[in-house]
Write a structure and sequence with these properties.
single chain, 235 residues, globular
Length: 235
């Protein structure tokens, strides 16, 4: 086992790698629910109030559309707290530095994402919705990367062909936002983005595992040192 890594099975069902996988799944689900909320127009409900809603005491939804918006907020709460707890655990434990930094970056972006989430209710505008989605994708990318680094010792070296085949779909993912492509049917729309988001996360994980197992990352560092090392010594 590489130095600075904990046993993946330490802690049983509550081990750090398993909790990271759960956090990735929650973030994935939260983004899909957010897309459904935006596309269905549910973000316009709750009487345009945030964090309150339009039901009993302003704490609960009054109808199905406002329930969608309310449920999106409900899932966002444990997801945010889980990211906070995992970031603290990463720093207090012996997790690799890149895992700690990725989780810290995701946590640092989270307040902005919460503010944007509130603005999507009080000021339902395309610019705000797009920023909210882009920030969510950035958090998802960081969490997936951290999870891939934590789990990389559990998997055999992935075949390069698999990574390249998914990478071929990257241009499609680059334009696949709820505001650029519309499939008409809400069900097909959600299926499309669910598959796209899953493939995007898989692409990140495969890219990390392939680069680590093939030594690409180490080669890049050696090339950088060879190029800049003499200049730094002569400075």
């Amino acid at each position: 086992m590489a130095p600075g890594r904990s046993d993946p099975d330490d802690g049983g069902w509550f081990s750090f790698p398993r909790l990271m996988a759960v956090a990735t799944g929650l973030t994935f689900s939260l983004i899909l629910i957010g897309i459904y909320t935006a596309v269905s127009g549910a973000g316009l409900t709750c009487q345009g109030r945030w964090p309150l809603c339009d039901g009993w005491l302003g704490l609960f939804p009054a109808n199905w559309p406002s329930f969608i918006e309310w449920f999106h907020r409900l899932i966002a709460m444990p997801t945010g707290f889980m990211l906070l707890g995992l970031t603290v655990a990463a720093w207090r434990g012996d997790q690799p530095r890149r895992v700690r930094y990725a989780m810290t970056a995701a946590l640092a972006i989270l307040p902005t994402q919460i503010i944007l989430g509130g603005l999507t209710v009080t000021q339902y505008e395309v610019v705000i919705l797009t920023a909210h989605f882009a920030t969510a994708m950035l958090i998802f990318t960081l969490v997936v990367a951290a999870t891939a680094w934590v789990l990389e010792d559990r998997f055999d070296r992935p075949h390069r062909a698999a990574a390249f085949s998914i990478a071929g779909l990257a241009p499609l993912f680059a334009v696949a936002t709820p505001f650029v492509i519309s499939l008409g049917s809400l069900r097909l729309h959600m299926l499309y983005y669910g598959i796209g988001l899953l493939a995007y996360g898989t692409l990140i994980a495969l890219g990390i595992w392939v680069s680590e197992r093939t030594g690409f990352g180490a080669d890049t560092r050696r090339i950088s040192f060879a190029a800049w090392g003499p200049r730094r010594r002569s400075a």
